[in-house]
């Protein structure tokens, strides 16, 4: 029915066929009109590359570092909530695929599989993403759990003090696990492969939270707790105590403004991620790739800069690298792979991106990812 997936879009089509609508839509959506979600992707098309010829293209290398960790290419898996609803045990499978590919995996606070679940099923340290909740005891405890399981970086998300609205989630009545209304039962029943795999795992809810947060004893108290707990008062002072409590490598995620980037650099964090949360928070904000050069100008000499949002190919990775990102993160590309084919699909997504990155680098006349910069960007066509 489907031919071999050759692009991330091929994986996306398969995921749509295999994953119940409410969870597929949860991934493939942005806030309100989705204008920022779309711009993240389409703005990459405005960046043009220089084609070079008769340059030695042998012995190419994509190997580099992100926050000092060796990576086989400058691509990490972004933290995404509810991976375990794209595919049973999704976080474990994605972490294993990332480990095998030699790239970092970032586990979300809002994951289905817990930090301990993922640690038990992997052999190398992964990164943990923290949402700051009002219940600071819970937050402190979460940081300690990430430390205890050997996570090698904490990714602190700054752009979700309150939740942006995604219309599709409201219309679909998204919940974890799915509710038993006729609409939801139909959505699950029409995705039998997904459902059969889901029946074979015990991991169906937010396992970083259930059993760890005060007053959360059952599923209905969990959903109330989660909705109420994001902290609208989160401030730069909180970054200081989190950094201290954690004591390891810290990455600040969700910077989209040069002023904020300067504040972030002053915290002494190890890196920032230029990000608008994949267009899921402030609709109408600029695309990540269009903001990246300004932020590199503002703080590039002080702090390592990463970016995410809209990367759908290895070409996009190369463009971000050329504009000053030391590394990038992919969210939906690996979620589509996961939904389409489980662990094999995440591996496929990473292979597709790696191949495109390598070939593009060669055709731009370059052999080493660490030497990529503005020299590969073509002058705009119609200045
Ligand atoms: C389904 C989904 C869930 C997400 N959940 C989280 C999350 O729990 N924490 C977080 O910091 N970012 C979250 N994000 C944002 C991603 O980390 C990342 O910024 C974004 O996906 C990058 O854009 P891309 O999907 O176009 O690659 C989520 C994104 C998606 C698509």
UniProtKB/TrEMBL annotation:
GO cellular component annotations of the record: plasma membrane
Binding site for FMN: 79-81, 108, 129, 157, 253, 275, 308-312, 331-332
Catalytic machinery residues: 277
Domain of life: Bacteria
Cofactor(s) required for function per UniProt: FMN
SUPFAM superfamilies documented for this protein: FMN-linked oxidoreductases
Transmembrane segments: none
Residues the entry annotates as binding glyoxylate: 26, 131, 166, 277, 280
GO molecular function, one term: L-lactate dehydrogenase (NAD+) activity
Stretches assigned to the FMN hydroxy acid dehydrogenase domain: 1-382
Any one Gene Ontology BP term: aerobic respiration
Pfam families tied to this protein: FMN_dh
Keyword line: Flavoprotein, FMN, Oxidoreductase
Record-stated family: Belongs to the FMN-dependent alpha-hydroxy acid dehydrogenase family.
Protein known as: L-lactate dehydrogenase (Cytochrome)
